[in-house]
Amino acid sequence: MKNSINIQLYSSCNCNCSFCHFTDKMYKKIDPQFVLDYLNQHDDINYIVITGGEPTLAIDEYRTIINGIDKTKKRIILQTNGWWGNNETIKEVIKKNPPSIVHLSVDSEKQNIININNVINAYNFLNENGIITYVINHTNNDEEFKTYLGIFPDLKRGNIVYDNGINLYDCGTALLANNTVGKINVKGWL
To answer: What kind of architecture, by CATH, is found in domain 4-189?
Structure first.
């Protein structure tokens, strides 16, 4: 997306999906002030994709960043695996600091670790609070897709990275959890 940025809020995840190249075992959280300073210097950024690892594992950083952004000028997209569907603290933070859109990821590999009922609860919570939610399945397995389509009628197939149409290996600027500016590509963070 033109005028967009990816923010790696947390470098690690509570899953270890084989298709995901955007996580490590470093357990680093981004400094919210680093993000806000960058955004203040780049007023032309319209879309902010908050990702990880799993960004809700850095919920305090999420809250600080969201509170510091002028949401009338920015669309905020939160990418999450929905593990927090039964966590009232995280739900309260998201309710008080809602993103514009949530990409909620489901697949059989992830659901071996995260109970699908937690994800369903997260999905229901987001819809009840008027937050636009897209449920994404990242596999090419038709049977798996049909199974999740039975649970989430608006399920979409998705890719972990979207090509910007120019260079598949350079998909945009990213603020990384180690507080550096990098790029997102099809294999992970540069």
So the answer is: Alpha-Beta Barrel (3.20)
